[in-house]
Design goal:
Helix content: 25-40%
Shape: globular
Strand content: 15-25%
Radius of gyration: 26 Å
Number of strands: 20
Structural class: alpha+beta
Oligomer: single chain
Number of helices: 19
Distance between the termini: 10 Å
């Protein structure tokens, strides 16, 4: 993994093999309400009758989570009682001239009060609520149930005790708002969105999307998802496709099954998904061929494994980006393409993109031919239909030529999400290297100039940079912050850098790649990278494990019993936050590269 050097804990670890087969590595998304994707979709989409449910054998359960349990989606429990009449803030939610305010007053029998949907800008407020997580649940509930019919915002208010608090105001949108953006809203009404659960095996997420778009006759950019999942694995993830009806999606079920995919829980939705729109991922992983480290022969293997888990549960792991982010094992890694794009070396980026692997299958034969001949038309004839990205790029090259302009048009021909993927890969590599430098320079102590995410004086409307605080010398002396609060920036045009040696390292490292003046905007490719922040340390949740014999039966070991290294495997179950990599966590546990 590029830039990966540091370890969080100093236990000895053990050796083993992962991803011996796809079924040894199962990933299931956890939705924004904290439920496994399979659990939530089975519950909320059961009314769709003939929609198939995901098989239980591939949807492992994790029944005890330390993450806060989400509220059930019942209005009385999530929303709570409405507030008595009060004056809403004028900013953004004030009623239009001539409209009628309907604040929640004395609720009718049963504790419910309805806003009048016939009156534009009708609004009401909830009682002041100091629980931020509960306010988030209310915003989510209202958005889920009413979509664009209403608008919700949180405002600072003075409660009945004279204390500053926060209340949510809900307003029915005025119908005239659509006249301000007629084209966009008419398009929104015409678009059809279909949500589904994708089960894929031995496929990259983007490769699966290429297959699906080819079968459905839509563009890869018509698909949205919350994150990219492992290739050599069985994964379950939520997806939404635009311009495809549920009935049409169901028609291709048998075709895509031959490609290692299945779709479940097909249903209509009103909008696309966003990256990061999940609470995390649940993993069920089998580690085979267990054995001691080569320099460790004195201890019982079971004790070594137990020691490793306890250390990582307590101390966490360095939150590196994992190998799949960079195209692990490929001759050209994705960060190299990203660097070429940032330097606007369009032809070089295309040549890197078409660099073949050391195999003789049709795809790599076609790539090899293109590098040797620059014959885009001939390469198109050789390339399989499902390689949608490659074929889009080649069509543009055939039309405009394999030169700077032609390659620029070629990159523009593939979806934005795929173009930006390469830029993000480069930024991820720099983040990994910066994190290694940070730990080598300062260790686990929070020092002056570090960046931390602050929860002080922020609300739902605060920007990300508003939350980033630079640690001062007095705060370092007082040990005000812990290492798990420290973040480092993913490079971009709108981020802060640490005000210490790490910040200086960033500038020197970017200069080494010729990016000292880079603004992380590639206007020719419509790419804009503002940057973000990522915690340098993360923790594993809900970790459990047991040992298996070769026949997959659980070993009932006593505390003082020893494992037979030649026969035992390890079954792990755990949850990770979004954008955390199980392979990185396992590296910390096992103390070996995977």
């Amino acid at each position: 993994m590029p830039g990966v050097l540091s370890m969080r804990s100093n236990h000895i670890g053990f050796q083993g093999s992962i991803k011996t087969s796809a079924s040894d590595f199962i990933v299931t998304e956890i939705d924004t309400l904290g439920r496994l994707l399979s659990e939530s979709t089975a519950e909320t989409l059961g009314a769709f009758g003939d929609m198939p449910a995901a098989p239980n054998s591939y949807c492992p359960q994790s029944s005890h989570r330390p993450w806060p349990e989400p509220p059930e989606l019942h209005r009385e429990e999530v929303l709570g009682p409405f507030d008595s009449p009060s004056h809403a803030p004028e900013d953004g939610l004030s009623p239009a001239k001539g409209s009628t305010e309907h604040m929640a007053g004395a609720a009718p029998e049963g504790g419910r009060h309805e806003a009048d949907a016939k009156l534009e800008n009708s609004k009401f407020s909830f009682k002041p609520d100091g629980n931020k997580e509960h306010r988030k649940a209310v915003h989510h509930f209202v958005s889920q149930k009413f979509g664009k019919l209403v608008e919700t915002k949180s405002f600072s208010v003075t409660d009945f005790n004279g204390q500053q608090n926060v209340a949510i105001i809900v307003r029915l949108r005025e119908k005239s708002w659509s006249r301000k953006r007629p084209a966009a809203d008419c398009q929104e009404k015409q678009d059809v969105y279909t949500g589904f659960t994708l089960r894929k095996e031995n496929l990259e997420t983007l490769e699966a999307i290429s297959y699906l778009s080819s079968e459905l006759g839509v563009l890869p950019s018509d698909f949205s998802y919350t994150g990219i999942k492992d290739k050599k694995a069985i994964t379950y993830q939520a997806m939404v496709v635009k311009k495809v009806t549920p009935e049409r999606l169901k028609e291709i079920g048998s075709t895509i099954e031959r490609k290692g995919m299945k779709v479940y829980n097909i249903h209509s939705v009103c909008q696309h998904l966003k990256l990061g729109q999940l609470k995390g991922n649940h993993f069920d992983i089998i580690v085979r061929d267990l054995k001691h480290q080569s320099n460790d022969s004195s201890a019982d293997l079971k004790e070594r494994i137990s020691e490793a888990f306890e250390n990582v549960k307590t101390k966490g792991f360095v939150n590196y980006y994992g190998p799949q982010r960079f195209g692990h094992g490929q001759n050209v890694q994705t960060d190299q393409i990203g660097l070429a794009l940032l330097n606007e070396e369009m032809v070089k980026a295309v040549k890197l993109f078409f660099t073949p692997e050391d195999t003789d299958d049709p795809v790599n034969q076609a790539k090899r031919y293109f590098l040797q001949s620059d014959d885009a038309k001939g390469t198109l004839a050789m390339l399989p239909e499902f390689k949608v990205r490659e074929r889009m790029l080649l069509r543009a090259l055939n039309r405009y030529g394999v030169n700077h302009e032609g390659c620029t048009r070629g990159w523009l021909s593939i979806p934005h999400s795929m173009r930006i993927f390469y830029i993000h890969a480069y930024c991820s590599k720099i983040w990994n290297e910066a994190t290694s430098f940070r730990f080598m320079t300062y260790g686990s102590k929070v020092v002056e100039g570090d960046l931390v995410l602050s929860e002080e004086n922020v609300d739902e409307n605060s920007s990300l940079n508003d939350r980033v605080h630079v640690v001062t010398a007095p705060e370092e002396s007082a040990n005000k912050y812990a290492i798990h609060q420290v973040v480092l920036p993913m490079v971009g045009h709108s981020i802060k850098y640490p005000n210490n040696k790490v910040g200086q390292w960033y500038h020197e490292r970017l200069a080494k790649d010729g990016l000292q003046t880079c603004r992380f905007r590639v206007s020719a490719l419509q790419l804009n990278t503002p940057g973000c922040y990522r915690h340098i340390l993360k923790y594993i949740h809900n970790l459990s494990y047991h040992f298996l014999e070769d026949n997959e039966k659980e070993i009932k070991t006593e505390e003082d019993s020893h494992l037979n290294e030649s026969k035992a495997s390890l079954l792990l179950s755990f949850d990770l936050d979004p954008s955390c990599y199980a392979t990185v966590c396992l590296r910390e546990i096992m103390k070996c590269d995977l």
